[in-house]
Amino acid sequence: MCNEKFPRGVNMAEESKKDQLMGKAKKAAGDFMNDEKTKEEGKRQETEGKVKDAAKDVKDKATDAFDNDNK
Rounded to an integer, what distance in angstroms lies between the CA atom of residue 66 and that of residue 44? Predict the structure, then answer.
């Protein structure tokens, strides 16, 4: 199944790490420029990356549990 958010060839883990890194960069830029909007956008993007990472972990654990039950 091809997910629009993560098309074939795009790794969910890579996407989450990219969001976390970009979020940290935006937060730092917002701090440097004293721009609250950029800083908040960075926090949101970093959090989004962490949520994607957690969702991937849950998916992996569920897949492992399902696979182990079917053996």
Answer: 33
14's CB contacts (< 8 A; 6+ apart) are none
pLDDT digits (tens, 9 = 90+) for 27-43: 999 999 999 999 999 99
Token pair for residue 39? 């800083």
Using CA atoms, how far apart are residues 37 and 8, in angstroms rounded to an integer? 33
Q: What are phi and psi of 3, to 5 degrees?
A: -90, 130
